[in-house]
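Reviewers of the previous submission asked for a worked example of the structure-prediction workflow described in the proposal, so we include one complete record here. The input consisted solely of the amino acid sequence. No template or homolog information was supplied to the procedure at any stage.
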Amino acid sequence: MLSVEQRDFARALDRVKPALAARAARPALGGVRLVGAGGCPGYGSLEATDLEIGVRATFPAEGELATCLVPGRALAAAVRAHDKGDSLAFEVEGTALLLAARGSGTRIGLLALEGFPAAHTAGETYIGRLDGPMLTGALAKVALAASTDEDRPVLTGVLFEPAEAGLRLVATDSHRLASLTLAVEWQRRRACWCPAGCAS
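From that input alone, the workflow returned the following structure tokens.
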């Protein structure tokens, strides 16, 4: 069983909701992946993606819970039905998630976890600061070289790659290549990819 304060869970859920697919061709994209505190003691996490963006948010929690995929809208409605001061208890029972608080309970049918896209990880995380308009301008310039061919999705994005000199943005459609490096003082570094559409 996983125990969490409603306000903490609701805050994490609000962070991942923008990544939920509105009308998903794949049901799993309308789901939120709920990970219990087993992987990171003292914290659980929520993940959502619409294949354009992916968001992960953590929340303080106690106990453990089998990783599951919960329909996002149903989970949000069930959590909103409780007060901010309530303590929520989650438990997976067969193909359902049980949410209990103050003597009442909600049962939410789970989605197939296998349908949820695997999270992309790229080693150690680095953190730095950039001016927002500078990043937006650089991203807009580099994204011009990104492909619009949805049959080759990896070329429709921009690579964010940490470099010694700062943050390198790279995009290509296999015929042209654009690269630009922004000065950043890193605390930690990690490469990531984002869809070129984020530039607009």
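The chain has three helices and 13 strands. We consider this example representative of the routine output the project will generate in years two and three.
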